Fold each of these.
Amino acid sequence: MSDREQPYDPYIPSGQGASTQGQNGNTRTAALQAEIDSTVNVMRSNINKVSERGERLDSLQDKTDNLAVSAQGFRRGANRVRKQMWWKDMKMRMCLIVGIIILLIVIIVPSVVASKH
């Protein structure tokens, strides 16, 4: 009976007995478990990285909002200063024009009055 062939089993690779198949099964199971564990660790690492990235994006969004508010305040302040400087420049020009007119009046009026007499 020992010379007799084993019945065909599609789940047992050909040319191997039951004891060899058991060892290969354990080795394969261990290899698959190790691969699954490795994949799980990679996925956990990826999830942690995505979470950290989300936190950094939230922080960046807050900084962007603060910068936009600061830029708007700066723009308002710059416009206010520009208008103040424009008025200051116009006042200075008016003072110069009035001074020149007064100086011309002081020079021209006495010479005209003196020439009439």
Note: The mean pLDDT is 86.
Amino acid sequence: MSELPHLNERDEAHMVDIGGKADSHRVAVAEGLIRMTAEALEALQQGNLAKGDALGTARVAGIMAAKRTADLVPLCHPLSLTHIDVKLTPSAESPAVHCEVTAATRGTTGVEMEALTAVQVALLTVYDMCKAMDRGMCIEGVRLTHKRGGRSGDWNR
């Protein structure tokens, strides 16, 4: 049997059995950003996009994505989230929109995948809503920045 926990005795990918693990409070924070032209960022900030409020829509999309992560990522356990916070911060200097997501649960497995999925979907939503002004936008730097709880303890980038 492989020493990687996501492989079974036949070295096939499978969902890890977390049934014997104790519940604990678990938190994960992830971030990423989308770079765009200054004109696209200005239109986004002023609410002048043809599709409407990009930041508000992206915030809701990120929350919805976190709740559906197990449907999107193979072998990911479905979780009952106790908290999800999606922050989208425009920056004229870059120009870009930074996204930070905090996800939390009280359970037997972590919420890293939920936080990472929420960041990506929120930024994809910004792309979708701004693409008429800038098809050259670039999503980058999607990464976990902090994890708390569980058997492996805390981790900070």
Note: The chain has a mean pLDDT of 88.
Amino acid sequence: MTRTDTNIRSVDFVWEQALSEASDAIAAEPLLGGLVHSSILHHASLENALAHRFAQKLASQEMGEQLLREIADQAYGEDLDLGQAARADIVAVFERDPACHRFLQPLLFFKGFQAVQAYRVSNWLWRKGRQDLAYFVQMRISEAFGVDIHPGARIGRGIMIDHAHSIVIGETAVVGDNVSMLHSVTLGGTGKEHHDRHPKIGNGVLIGAGAKVLGNIKVGHCSRIAAGSVVLEEVPPMKTVAGVPARIVGEAGCAQPSTMMDQLIGIRGPDA
């Protein structure tokens, strides 16, 4: 652990805020005491809490909670970036999702956040050469959360997946930092081709509900993909695309579409 990592953990405002909110939640609703204690207050760090939640949500008759907890603890212990990425994801959800009012909510209730954190463990396994175990975690994520992210995909920090139902992200997909997407998004291939076959999503991109981005194409930074679009060609930076197939319909509308979350597309009249 570097000195920087030590300083970050000693002033961990995300975890401290979650602890405070957890205590308030029990005071407001004592019936949630068991859940909140076991998931948040019982743990010494955010990493411990994430490992517990990973094991609890993905445990099954095929692999029990204890084994999964050991896997997650090892992942968070060896790769400090996993915990820092989770903190960035929590802040992203809090800042961008109008239904999120506390850091506690993603940790306990939001399957998009939980699926992304579980993916991060599967990706750690993949990078360690433990592909079969990574595939097992991918399967359980799909079964538990309705989200299918290949463990080989590369996903950055500050990710917000709202609602998260029916998300599909392929093996060679790359998702940059500070990306937001809504339910039923597919980052997929176009057939049975092998090797590098999935989209490359730049930083700060907003992908609307039901959008499909297919093939080894680049979506430029801070661009915006309208809901229901099918993107088959490269998208330049800071543009809005819409339609089937998607075409450029204007500028992105703001400097950082993924944080503004503005999905409305202005329609110009014939005299505009």
Note: The chain has two domains: 13-146, 153-271.
Amino acid sequence: MIRLFHVNAFAHRPFTGNPAMVVLSQGLDEFTMQRMAAEFCLSETAFVEAITGDHYRLRWFTPQVEVALCGHGTLAAAHVIWTQGLAAPGQPLSFDTRSGLLTAVRDEAGIRLDFPAIEMAPLALDAAYAQALGVSPRQTWAAGAKFVLELGSEAEVRAIHPDFQALRVLPGRGLIVTAPGQDADIDFVSRYFAPWVGVEEDPVTGSNHCALAPFWGKRLGKTQLKAYQASERGGALLLRVVGDRVQMTGRALTLSRGEWLPPAA
């Protein structure tokens, strides 16, 4: 039996944060995983395969492609493992992924993930991207395969209404917009648009913060930061930069669970 869990990650209450489907996926092939992710049509479906009691293989798929790193899918997977009693509550978890070994631990603030930091580099980005978002960026950057537009204020980030038709004709993988927070309790905000992989706007994107946390940490002179992804659903992350790693903490809750019934041959 293949069990399924619909989880809100980086969420304090239902219908916020980023929804992920978690599949306990022993023995599924890649073709089936991609078709299942397309069927669920969430920004990510996480496929978890047990290796030992605290060690798992983890893969993530959007409705269209497999991705190398996913924060909310990892958070959701760890949440399911602990809440289903597959590991003791105080037992750290480790995941073999396309981005190397990732770990998760529980603490009083939620679930803390340990991810690799991503360095941002200045990039001369075609003005068509900013035009499609209706913004005037202060600077543009590359964060791996993703483009980053730095704006002047949180209000500008929140006011964006992208022209997705215009974005789709441009080459890309994902487009991050970010700015300083306007309140003392939020260091920076962001939003993320990725129509190229079947996700127009991702509600809360943990992997982006592998780049944003070191970037804003240097700007603000901090190693511990509070971030908010200002999508319609919204989500908060507690971040800590430790050398070439980023620790991100959030909460998760299960909305529904069921089982996958493979179609008859």
Note: The domain at 2-113+249-258 is CATH 3.10.310.10 (Diaminopimelate Epimerase; Chain A, domain 1).
